[in-house]
Design the sequence.
């Protein structure tokens, strides 16, 4: 067999890799990942805040929590977290997970009831990566 390597990772390649990963995970009884998003929009319909969660079985991973700079300190992030947690409880989730840089939001997630489970120092540019988990009472 003749193999070649290049740096041209196309959308088609990505779709193939994701499908292959999902099939391999399914072979090992790992549930497929599903994406769920909660979005705040302004009067013009523009996304001003978003929480994106990846779901696998009865666990959720908060992949993204973002609030536009002009709309910060108005409780949108907290409201998005409450919405996501309410969804998780209603679906019978056992846990929620999130990771963040130390300079970003670990204190915020701790205020939301998450506990730190790991930290990787000097992850990127001298910044630590913090991993947190929240065990849900419904579990």
Sequence:
């Amino acid at each position: 067999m003749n193999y070649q390597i290049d740096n041209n990772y196309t959308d088609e390649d990505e779709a193939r890799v994701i499908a292959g990963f999902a099939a391999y995970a399914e072979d090992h009884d790992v549930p497929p990942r599903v994406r769920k998003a909660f979005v705040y929009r302004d009067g013009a319909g523009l996304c001003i805040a978003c929480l994106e969660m990846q779901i696998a079985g009865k666990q959720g991973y908060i992949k993204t929590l973002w609030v536009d700079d002009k709309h910060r300190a108005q409780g949108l992030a907290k409201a998005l977290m409450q919405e996501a947690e309410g969804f998780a409880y209603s679906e019978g989730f056992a846990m929620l997970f999130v990771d963040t840089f130390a300079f970003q939001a670990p204190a915020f997630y701790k205020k939301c009831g998450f506990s730190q489970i790991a930290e990787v120092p000097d992850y990127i540019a001298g910044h630590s990566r913090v991993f947190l988990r929240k065990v849900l009472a419904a579990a």
Helices lie at 11-27, 76-90, 106-111. Strands lie at 33-41, 47-56, 59-67, 95-101, 115-124, 127-135. The chain has one domain: 32-135.
